[in-house]
Amino acid sequence: MTNTLEWTGSSLKLIDQTVLPLKERIIECRSYEDVADAIKTMKVRGAPAIGVTAAYGMVLGAMGIETADASAFMQRLNYIADVIKSTRPTAVNLFWAVDKILTVAQQASKTSSVEIIKEAMQREADQMAKDDIEANKAMGEFGQVLLNDGDSVLTHCNAGALATVGYGTALGVIRAAVAHGKKISVYADETRPFLQGARLTAWELARDGIDVTVIADNMAGYLMRNGKIDKVIVGADRIAVNGDTANKIGTYSVAVLAHHHQIPFYVAAPVSTIDKTLPDGSYIPIEQRDPKEMIYVNGVQIMPDDVKVINPAFDVTPHDYISAIITEKGILYPPYNIMNIDA
Ligand code: MRU
User: Site annotated as Transition state stabilizer: where (predicted)?
Assistant: First the structure.
């Protein structure tokens, strides 16, 4: 299985997702600043992977605090939490993970020494990493019943092992269906501008021997109209209480097409991706990234100088286009009211 991240006890190793599939380069984060930079520059990306990486960023930040005074320690830790939280705004797993680690530290700080607080934080981050893989496997088992032998499944972006600690959410469901002996063919949208589909989804599915065909983002309608897509399955960065779902830019267009062609459209995500504070998707903050990601492909400028460019990294798919949401606790069907699920 792909090792998206690996905690060594004193550093966090990440597979650099900016250079895949041409290079398999491992980078080593030794400080919370290194972690914040890796998240911001998308060396690590995908909501669950960002969350666990951020948790280890907190551990690295804690290791670098040299005080024996618990309240001074907590003050500094809160600052580090703010820095890590400022890296990317949309994936709620980032905030969920940092807050979970902060809560563990706060609890421990009431009775314990700084050394014990640091140990408790590391245990929590290790547990999150372990839980992530288990959640993905559970999601896979629940979700695979929705896929039939012989299905062609369209996915957008990368919601695979690389976007999680391992196994994947949307791709985890596909992996589980294949493990159950079903023949599944995957169409992967290339996913401009960062090309997560062409570079990452194609790389990890090909490594697993799962049939994958890369298409440009504007080819999905053609395929659907010609009866080539049976199901769509994508991941999520943040799900509001009514089921509205933020995911990689272009997901909304795919959902509209699927709705028009009456093709089931599934979202697979752990409950840590649900934001119970947001009643609907209009409140989800959408990250606007550097236009350079649009202007250059592999360092080569592809448009005239001085044209206007926008680069929103996510869009929101309204809940009425989502046939089901697959979580590690089970499959949710409309009408969605996700207040009751344990997150
Ligand atoms: O900008 P990215 O690559 O972090 O966006 C990733 C996605 O949109 C994924 O589909 C989502 O995080 C789910 S990953 C299991």
Answer: 157
- How many domains, the chain? 2
User: Cβ(105) to ligand 1 under 6 A?
Assistant: no
Nearest protein CA to atom 8 of ligand 1, as residue: 248
Q: Residue 114: which CATH number? A: 1.20.120.420
Q: Are residues 304 and 249 in the same domain?
A: yes
> Roughly what angle, to the nearest 10 degrees, separates helices 47-63 and 92-109?
30
Q: In which band, very low, low, confident or very high, does the pLDDT at 341 lie, cut at 50, 70 and 90?
A: confident
Spatial separation of the C-alpha atoms in residues 191 and 337, rounded to whole Å: 30
Predicted local distance difference test score (pLDDT) of residue 115 = 97
Q: Is 196 annotated as a binding residue?
A: yes
Q: Is 237 designated active site? A: yes
Q: Please, which residues bridge with residue 239 across strands?
A: 245, 274
- Report residue 73 as tokens: 């320690």
45 is in an annotated binding site: yes
Distance CA 247, CA 215 (A): 18
> Quick one: which of 248, 235, 234 has its CA closest to 287?
248
Give me the domain span that covers residue 322: 146-340
**HSE, side-chain direction, 13 A CA sphere, residue 19:** 9
Does the structure's ipTM exceed the value 0.90? Answer: yes
Ligand 1, atom 10, residue with closest C-alpha: 235
* Residue 340 pLDDT level (bands cut at 50, 70, 90): confident
The structure tokens 């839980």 sit at: 131
pLDDT tens-digit map of 154-179: 999 999 999 999 999 999 999 999 99
Q: What pairs with residue 153 in β-bridges? A: 186, 231
pTM: 0.97
